[in-house]
Amino acid sequence: MADARAASVSSLLIQYQDPEDIAEIVDVLRPLRISQIIPNAVVIVHTLWDAGTHVVRKSYYDGKDSIPREAIERIKQDEGIGEWNVYAALYGTPEQIEVNWKIVEQAFGASGKAKIMYGDEAEQRGGGFEYRAALMKGDMNLQEFGLYNWRGAAVLCGLPRYLKLRAARPRIRPN
Q1: Which carries the bigger pLDDT value, residue 70 or residue 50?
Q2: Edge to edge, what strands does the sheet with 43-46 contain?
Q3: Residues 6+ apart with CB under 8 A from 33
Q4: CB burial class (10 A; 0-12, 13-18, 19+) of residue 147?
């Protein structure tokens, strides 16, 4: 008979606030992934990708060009999203998760830049914690399709004008 405790999972969210912090995130994650402290495929997402799952772009910027830095900062503030948001999970018995959690806290806490959250605290933040936690438990969902709302679903209707579709024509080459 299998022990139900072996099926435990603890999803976590780690946020960094500066664009330059991506290098630190990768450097801290590398040994945790290699040693299987964090065994799953970690997701690192920028503010705009995280916001895109549940926010409409024109709520913050209505221009056609790249979204300005001021708008990104407003999104971070309003939605509780970091510049970089790391989603991961720890698996195993509750005792093993507790040990691994301490290792993760120590590794990411070393610089003082990371905000490490799980459970209720992470769920209260904006962004995609809830649906990503479900994915890391093996539940399927279609939340990523919310990204179509970032620019509005109508953008899909405009897709053909960007693609030059032509009927296949045989090419006849002279001998």
Answers
A1: 70
A2: 43-46, 84-92, 8-16, 115-118
A3: 39, 42
A4: middle
Beta strand spans in 53-151 (E) = 84-92, 115-118
Residue 161 or 2, more confident: 2
Strand 115-118 vs strand 8-16: parallel, antiparallel, or unpaired?
antiparallel
Report how far residue 46's alpha carbon sits from residue 38's, in angstroms, rounded to the nearest whole number: 20
**What is the rounded distance in angstroms from the CA atom of residue 60 to the CA atom of residue 79?**
11
What is the pTM for the complete model shown? 0.77
What digits encode the pLDDT tens for the residues 10-64? 999 999 999 999 999 999 999 999 999 999 889 999 999 888 888 888 899 998 8
The fold for domain 4-162 equals Vanillyl-alcohol Oxidase; Chain A, domain 3 (3.40.462)
For 56, the token pair is 């409409």
pLDDT tens digits along 106-148: 999 999 999 999 888 888 776 678 878 888 888 777 666 666 6
Q: How far is CA 103 from CA 86, 95, 107, 156, in A?
A: 16, 13, 6, 44
